[in-house]
Design brief:
With about 200 residues, the chain is mostly helical. The chain is built from nine helices and two strands; from the N terminus they run H-H-E-E-H-H-H-H-H-H-H. It folds into two domains: about 150 residues, no CATH class; about 35 residues.
Length: about 200
């Protein structure tokens, strides 16, 4: 009966479809972050292709990152482990997240019928934690030191986050935090200011 309820109850179905979409989206954004941040750090040549920023793989990247694992995603994660950004436990958790992402993507109808349980919600929370941990570490340990700019005394090392992390957080709040009205108001303000110019 639960399987039918998960499909026939519009509210449950919408929640499950949203959860599946957001889980996969977060994973893909995290995967891209993990690979591209490290690749760009070692890259000596950058260019644009189809409105996408491309970084060539340098010899240093091949030696220091690709040499860690045959799989580029795992190699990049291991680089973050070696750098102290995440732990071996985080690395293992990421592997569980990837397995669940693959299951959701390849068995979507089955997942919608079965519904998402506490286990998937915990994995999603772990994915958010790992993403935020990497994002903060990258800003504090790579971007700020490379920029050479003076850090203000009131700088909040724990409160920083990148643009993609902010966008993902907003999506999460709108879909699961019932914050849609707040963002509709923000959109109206932004549109109003743009029209005034």
């Amino acid at each position: 009966m639960d399987k039918w309820k998960n499909i026939l109850d519009e509210d449950i179905l919408k929640f499950n479809v949203n959860f599946a979409a957001v889980f996969v989206m977060y994973y893909e954004c995290l995967k891209e972050f993990v690979i591209e941040q490290v690749r760009s750090l070692y890259s000596e040549h950058f260019y644009m292709e189809d409105e996408k920023f491309i970084c060539d793989e340098s010899d240093d990247f091949k030696k220091n990152v690709r040499g860690l694992d045959k799989n580029l995603e795992n190699a990049s994660l291991k680089w973050f482990v070696e750098a102290g950004a995440i732990t071996e436990e985080d690395y293992s958790t990421y592997q569980k997240i990837r397995k669940k992402r693959n299951d959701i993507t390849h068995e979507l109808l089955k997942n919608l019928c079965m519904g998402f349980k506490e286990e998937e919600a915990q994995l999603f929370a772990e994915m958010l934690r790992i993403y935020n941990k990497l994002d903060k570490w990258w800003i504090n340990e790579i971007e700020i030191p490379i920029s050479g700019e003076d850090i203000p005394e009131d700088y909040d090392k724990d409160g920083v986050c990148g643009g993609q992390a902010i966008m993902l957080s907003v999506i999460n709040e709108i879909l699961f935090g019932n914050e849609g009205d707040k963002y509709k108001e923000l959109l109206k303000e932004l549109v109003g200011k743009a029209e005034d110019k």
